[in-house]
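Recap for those who missed Tuesday's class. We walked through two folding examples back to back. For each one, the amino acid string is listed first and its predicted structure tokens come directly after. Nothing is annotated here on purpose, so try labeling regions yourself before you check the end of the notes.
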Amino acid sequence: MGIEFQERRRLPRVATAGRPEFRVARRFRVRLLDISSSGALLATEERLPVGAAARMQLLLAGSPFEALVEVRREEPSDDGRGRVSGVSMTSTQPGHQETLDDFLRRAGA
């Protein structure tokens, strides 16, 4: 009693060799644990793959901040109920580095 499948393909498919990669953009809700001028530590409920690139957007003292980041490390949180990920910033949006520098200066970092 299988489900009948009606073929709708108009053109033939051809098998290929190699290891293709398929990435789907997905949002993750994270909690910022700490931040520096070059990276941040994030808490999340889901595993973030090491090497993954992402866009991080947040508010720093009410000012928007955006950076491209790469996940450098990922491990279980100390309480075992979530995950922590260390990310490094690979680039920031124009003007956003100044926002981060100002935030860090005010925080005494």
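Example two. Treat it independently of the first, because the proteins are unrelated.
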Amino acid sequence: MKIRAYAKFKNFYRGLPEFVRSKALRQIRRLAKDMRYPSLRVKKIQGALGIWEARVDRQYRMTFEIIGDTIYLRVIGNHDDTLKNP
């Protein structure tokens, strides 16, 4: 699948510590190849129609939506903050 990122995602990504950005980049590549990759733990977000979450690590999450054959990255950051406003 193709990956695109909204401006909001890019802004949050730039604000992350370097070690988290490198983990996120690795997970984004995995997401593009196989959404079911075990470490991603992809699942739909309840109450948010068509929005999914994936794991960067134990503390950080990213949200995305799928339109056609493209994954649009929406938000990335701390688990609780990210899922409050996916």
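Answers for example two:
The two ends are 21 Å apart (CA to CA).
The chain has three helices and five strands.
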